[in-house]
């Protein structure tokens, strides 16, 4: 009997411990859900809670994460009665979660959105609230012209832009020097560079087409240089057809580049990050991407300075005989912007916080993160990376920024475009098929 | 106990909680999916009832049939790979040295999540830096296959990690079934002069036939709704070359905001899975199961 009791005691300890752990887990679960439940109506000290969801996690977007945190702290200091409750997700998870929250009508009070085609279904579903009043009151004339308009539908603005991106070909200066290459001004010079790099067994350019959009950068620039800067926007607005000879020619040029072995093999199965690896490992000499990559070449502490020093950039070369004769015409577009939920219970406070964030973001993102904000910045007296200053200068002398075709198009057409770009790079379809299938989808849409 | 089991209201009381849970969690959403399939719906914003238009569109949607074909192809391959698993577990179940170690080795992929497996194999398949192509080029192959971006290969390239992933699961099932075959029966047969091959095909196989039937259904239906690994590795690409029904459904519902149409695909997927299960049961219930 004695033995049995002692055995039970021995067994009892782990069981009790498990019970304690489970109980404490259950309790902590309860308390946190309590917090959520009190949510918008008011926090524990009678504070108003604004729920804010953003997509810059501490790990992968450290610079942005820190800035946002600082801004939130500043705001809470200035408004003691307000508590900002954040939820942070990575880019892809953010997109998924936003859709799920939208379908159950539980959007956060303030969140991030993309422009044009992404925004439209949400506005039509009356999930976002117009922000013109708060923009007029706080942010008049602070945005770079044209950026805010990308968030407008029927004359009302539903998002406050945070970022602006334009695309360049970034290149490895050391590799260029090694093979005696000059930055190309024209397309034939560019082709010669591709040829030389190929002869020396260096991958000329990295591109990842699993999701399609990185390859679309090459296509869009070729359309811009061959058919002129307005052609893709005209197509979206129904003024021109997608089967325009200039677009066919651009698609043909894409396949010519593929035939010349411009890109790493198997790119239609690689994600943008995987392809980026080829450039960051110096296996590929060039990488056509947007300025959101700038921190990797300027401020990011995770990238060795030796690599940063090797990276330069140039503008997409001009196509001989093309209609796009200005090298200062860019493909780019607004990145994320802030929305305020239409059915938010603290709409006015949420709007005010969003405006504050956009304004502060404009000042801090330049010096601390090295990304380009959608608001005008005064760079005087700030210590900035030379490449960054150069790009800001480019931006002010830009003759045109064509918003990414897939951003402008509806989600349906954008998805099709991504599929078809992958197929075009993989030579699964001809340029004619590429153009016809997109034109058909656009025509169906306009009915 | 007997008194409780003969009391009808007591039975109802015991069955009710589980029944309610299953109704709420499984059957009601199933019916709702079929219902949403009749809507023109973005996932948010008001729905519009459009009757059977989505289902009608589905029947004429070549991309849907292409993804169905890929799913069925995957199902057939998975079913065939059961034979490999069976052979392996036969060897493991007969007392060979190190069987325990091998069993564990086969089981390990089961412990990894599909996403981790997908990441792992994406690296292995990387066209220039991946392990396989490194090996091939070092062996003198000039143009090694571009596993995940060649539309003719991609489905089979994806199939390899799937075989690898599920090996442990099926081997454990077969191993357990084989261990249940009474030792005496096999001994008696061996004494009567049966060769190992005869023991396997005439005694062991018939005795584990019911288990084999169950695994066929599991493999086939599992492949039809297969999603995670493919979604992470290729996203159904390039240009839908590895699109399966579930990834097509996801793409329509979440990437293109056609929730109504996505629901219709989901409902069709359910019907196809039911049909397949029924078909296999019809085909495999020939005669009585062998008993010992």
Automatic annotation (TrEMBL), chain A:
Keywords: Cell membrane, Lipoprotein, Membrane, Palmitate, Signal. InterPro entries: Bact_solute-bd_prot1, SBP. The keyword Lipoprotein applies. It comes from the Bacteria. The keyword Ribonucleoprotein does not apply. This is ABC transporter substrate-binding protein. It comes from Paenibacillus bovis.
From TrEMBL, chain B:
Belongs to the binding-protein-dependent transport system permease family. It is found in: Cell membrane. Residues 68-280 form the ABC transmembrane type-1 domain. One of its GO terms (cellular component) is plasma membrane. The lineage of its organism: Bacteria, Bacillati, Bacillota, Bacilli, Bacillales. It comes from Paenibacillus bovis. The keyword Glycoprotein does not apply. This is ABC transporter permease. The chain crosses the membrane at residues 12-38, 72-93, 105-122, 153-177, 207-227, 259-280. It is a multi-pass membrane protein. Keywords: Cell membrane, Membrane, Transmembrane, Transmembrane helix, Transport. Signal peptide: none annotated. The keyword Membrane applies. Its main location: membrane. One of its GO terms (biological process) is transmembrane transport. PANTHER family: BLL4140 PROTEIN (PTHR43227:SF11).
